Amino acid sequence: MFRFVKYSDKRDCAANAVRLTSYHMNGESAASSQQYPPNQILENNNRPAINASSGSEIIGPTGTVRGFKNIITQRKEFLRNSLVKEIFEEDEEGKIVVYTTSMGGIRSKVDECAFIRKLFDNLGLKVDERDIFMHKDYQCQLDKRLGVQNAAVPHVFVNGDSLGGAKELENLNETGELKILLQNFERRNGPVCQVCGGFRYINCVHCHGSKCSRKTRISRQISVLRCTSCNENGLQRCPECDKN
């Protein structure tokens, strides 16, 4: 099916010209009916490619692939995970980060966290331990990094990359690969911190653990403001440990 379109161009010698444009029966241009591979979406401007299964294809009346379902959601999730990974890789270069918990509700988790602490203590390595029981934001942080909800602890990251949990660390230690992998990392120096006793947290110096920063009276009612210097447990990071 064809359509004739008249147009004028001042740069052309002819005052009127005729342009021939081909169309399919469904009204779409032939240029837009190009088929793409079913399992890959071509990207421009160096944007990341998003894979899609053949079941999510949107087929047009002529049998051509018009798009993919949920492509925007997939792209947003892909970019979010990539951004989170890049941020942590940059901030944790040359660091060992261990997510643990000090809550003794689940015996197996307590034993695994104790094993991880003992393992790095024997290696004499400096570790940034993040207790999800002491600070709930660490649980949210771990969930974002692994892309799951309520991610299990313990979990170890080296240079911003996931190394695994207790079983993975135990296997690496038994084969000797862990010592080789971490041989150039910073060693632990000095005794246990005298300020926090090695817990890396102290009572808030502003509210002293009450989590209230100020009380004001407004029309016979006492308004309590939340302290912004501590977490949900009235604790803040040890300043001496953060210096080191």
Multimeric status of the protein: single chain
**Main sheet makeup:** 4 strands, mixed
Low-confidence stretches: 6-50
Beta strands, count: 12
Large-scale geometry: flat
Distance between the termini: 75 Å
Overall mean pLDDT: 75
Percent in helix: 25-40%
The chain-level structural class is alpha+beta
Q: Gyration radius, to the nearest Å?
A: 30 Å
Spatial order of the strands in the main sheet?
A: 6-5-7-8
Q: What amount of the residues lies in strands?
A: 15-25%
Task: Characterize the structure shown.
With about 240 residues, the protein is an alpha+beta fold. The chain is built from six helices and twelve strands. The protein has helices spanning about 70-90, 105-125, 135-145, 165-175, 175-180, 240-244, and strands at about 1-5, 15-20, 55-60, 65-70, 95-100, 130, 155-160, 160-165, 200-205, 210-220, 220-225, 235. It has a four-stranded mixed β-sheet. Strands 1-2 form a two-stranded antiparallel ribbon. The longest helix has 21 residues, at about 70-90. It is flat. Residues about 5-50 have low confidence and may be disordered.
